[in-house]
Design the sequence.
């Protein structure tokens, strides 16, 4: 338990051991489930809870500050179980009223069996008065579920954003404690928020009306310097890309890998940043991070049984799911006795990505010219913006 402002406490937990999220995303540094207790002169409110399995630790942290039975409000900024999974225990041990959006109320009934008479629905600008402290609610839907909202502590100017501005790391309490925080936040943005860039941009637009001294997300460190993460989120939600290409490939007998090495040379010579991932050993979170600001993608895959290698299919599906702001694409393929991978990739490549070139080679590559020329063309496209 830590006091982050006068009578505002961080009462959440750290999950040092968790290594996978959503059965997809590796968490090399664990994560945290931040929960906050605001103690007003008359009433108190708990903002978000913790992942199931950590209820006892949450209750212990709350009990160091107040009697849980006297909790007045439980605020659900987001209904996903890593933040809302302990709602049933908190509701059972207190007479708190659950505060959430209209959509959140529907979800609280379905997921957590919260009865109607213990839910108060709030909308944009609504407030609850805790005595000397006031919480104002800001609707921020689809970050990354439909019911999401922010809570703003008016007197302390603290913004509680749940997943938004979060990062999966158990390290540190505040932004200044975590050396690789922006890189970690970019990874998180790529995994969770990138498909909802437009909604993120709209939410940031709303925040212009608020003076924010501190951002307190429900994963990762608290921002004492909110502009650090706000500046990054403005770029990421706007889909700003750099002179950068991400290469995502699979290779069985190194032919596709040789093609990758050939195309990298003109790109590097032209000063293009290259992020290269072999899907056989890549961390999906690293790929998600580099998809956030890459302007181009090179997909490499061997043909397997008339189609593309299943790992490459997974990589392509990841691009379709995460919806990065990539503008240009190149496809590299080596086949044994029959084609098939390039057609499949073109069919499934997002329409927002302009194909700049595709190379199909029977067996190992022997002539570099075609691939080099495509690399030069891609570098020119990337530099055009
Ligand atoms: Fe951290 Fe969408 O839950």
Sequence:
């Amino acid at each position: 338990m830590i006091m982050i402002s006068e009578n505002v406490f961080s009462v959440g937990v750290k999950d040092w051991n968790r290594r996978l999220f959503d059965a997809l995303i590796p968490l090399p540094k664990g994560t945290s489930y931040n929960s906050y207790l605001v103690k007003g002169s008359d009433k108190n409110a708990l903002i978000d809870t913790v992942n199931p399995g950590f209820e006892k630790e949450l209750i212990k942290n709350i009990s160091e500050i107040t009697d849980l039975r006297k909790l007045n409000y439980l605020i659900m900024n987001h209904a996903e179980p890593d933040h809302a999974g302990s709602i049933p225990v908190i509701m059972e041990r207190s007479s708190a009223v659950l505060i959430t959006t209209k959509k959140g109320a529907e979800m609280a009934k379905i997921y957590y069996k919260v009865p109607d008479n213990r839910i108060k629905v709030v909308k944009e600008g609504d407030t609850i008065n805790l005595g000397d402290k006031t919480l104002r609610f800001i609707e921020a839907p689809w970050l990354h579920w439909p019911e999401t909202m922010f809570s703003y502590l008016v007197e302390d100017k603290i913004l509680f954003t749940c997943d938004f501005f979060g990062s999966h790391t158990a390290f540190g309490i505040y932004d200044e404690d975590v050396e690789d925080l922006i890189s970690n936040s970019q990874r998180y943005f790529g995994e969770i928020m990138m498909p909802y860039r437009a909604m993120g941009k709209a939410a940031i637009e709303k925040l212009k009306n608020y003076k924010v001294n501190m951002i307190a997300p429900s994963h990762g460190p608290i921002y004492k310097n909110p502009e650090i993460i706000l500046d990054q989120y403005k770029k990421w939600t706007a889909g700003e890309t750099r002179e950068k290409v991400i290469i995502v490939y699979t290779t069985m007998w190194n032919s596709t890998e040789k093609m990758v090495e050939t195309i990298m040379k003109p790109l590097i010579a032209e000063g293009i940043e290259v992020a290269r991932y072999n899907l056989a050993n890549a961390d999906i979170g690293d790929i998600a991070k580099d998809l956030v600001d890459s302007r181009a993608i090179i997909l490499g895959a061997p043909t397997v049984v008339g189609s593309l290698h299943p790992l490459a299919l997974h990589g392509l599906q990841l691009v379709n799911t995460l919806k990065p702001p990539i503008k240009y694409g190149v496809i590299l393929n080596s086949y044994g006795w029959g084609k098939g991978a390039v057609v499949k990739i073109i069919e499934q490549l997002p329409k927002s990505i302009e194909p700049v070139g595709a190379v199909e080679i029977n067996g190992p590559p022997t002539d570099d010219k075609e691939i080099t020329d495509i690399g030069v063309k891609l570098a020119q496209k990337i530099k055009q913006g």
Notes: The CA atoms of residues 194 and 328 lie 18 Å apart.
